[in-house]
Hints:
The complex is a heterodimer of chains A (273) and B (153). Chain A has 273 residues and is mainly α. Chain A has 2 domains: 1-121, Ferritin; 123-273, Ferritin, core subunit, four-helix bundle (Ferritin), CATH 1.20.1260.10. Helices cover 73% and strands 1% of the residues of chain A. Chain A has helices at 2-22, 26-52, 71-88, 95-112, 137-167, 171-198, 209-212, 217-241, 245-272; strands at residues 129-130, 133-134. Chain B has helices at residues 3-15, 63-76, 81-97, 100-125, 141-151, and strands at 28-33, 40-48, 51-60, 133-135. Chain B has one domain (3-151): Sufe protein. Chain: A. Classes of the chains: A mainly alpha (273), B alpha+beta (153).
Amino acid sequence: MAERVFTTMHEGWLRLLFTSFAVNDREWGERLYDYSEILYRHMRFVETLFVEKKIEYSYERPSLALEFKSEGEAARFCHEGVEKILEQMNESGDPLASRIIHDLRYISSTLEREFEREGEVTAFDKSLKLDGVELEKSSLDALVLFLFEESYKEYELIIIYSYAQTVVENKRLFEIFQILIDESKFHLKSFALLMAKLGILAVPRMVTQEIYRFDSLKRFLTEGIEEEKGAKEQCRALAEAVDEEKLREFFDFINFQEDYHITLMKEALEIIE
Amino acid sequence: MDTKEIYETTMDHMMNPRNYGKLENPDAVGIGKNPQNGEMVIIYLKIENEKIEDIKFQAKACMTTVIAGSIFTQTVKGATLKEARELTSIMLEKVKQMPPEEAACSELVAEAFLAALEHHEMRAKDPEAPVPTRMIENECADQSLQKEGVENG
Lengths: 273, 153
């Protein structure tokens, strides 16, 4: 039962998060993003409680397809996710449960008011055009593959660092993981918004226990540093390959951002050694 | 299938990989592994009357492997074990004609499936038989790129 609530919260977070990237009305999209962040925090509060009480839970979840064609349908898709969590929450008098239920009821009611929205959703139409511009074929292929690989990778990192926060006792390590979660959320948002523009937005596949429950934090960080270096190289190569100035600048920016991650991961490695 | 259809099918499997995940209480499990970089595919099977009733896969690997796993599992779901084995042989023959860096992804999926079939046979004799792992021979594109990067300084 507990595992089911956690999975439902995870799914609810992803429904709101990816809908926030999908809608063309960016003001509403940003509000949905804020709500998705509230749902993420709910999931983490519950996780902390489960860890304290030694209740089994898992970040594994079923696949989640995004198929809505209008913003009204998008609101219903999010509403369904929120209502599923509410159905599984007990009015037990527990203060945390009460707060979560209160938040969810408010979010649910605001979503209901958006059911009649008529705006078209183009985030899954596979147009492969960026702001109406067709990219050169080889640039486009490299960009599409990169976005799918990296959106999964950022989601995977959010899950891994979230889980890692439950197993470390050092305060600085916890802070480092929080910074890395926030960085990965920003990267995921940046990549997903590009995917939505290209009409190829999708929720990444699930991260399995074998991946997020690492055996050795030291090995995970060491390999992670190498992966970050690889990501830097990919961004650099992509910046060179794409024949579009704004995109080139964006990938250069992401490339240099990876330097923060490498420095933080090296610091984390020093702490555990 | 023309180039446009292939592109659209590939995109569809990238956006919504079929049969991704785990099966509860599978009848057989197999692992395909790349010994050079640790990339792996796990296949879970539900088998009834020599037929694949259900199949799921997981990949700790690149997107191309996920596409290969999605297409492969969709194709063999519902097939008899004999048909699925024949299809896997054809796939491995095709793999031999590909450049090694492109072949590794499909090979990972095929070897994981063959390992799962092995597991099914082993479990008929010993229900506690361990999950077998089959290693691939080709090297994936990511590794080739990494090597190029190193060689080019």
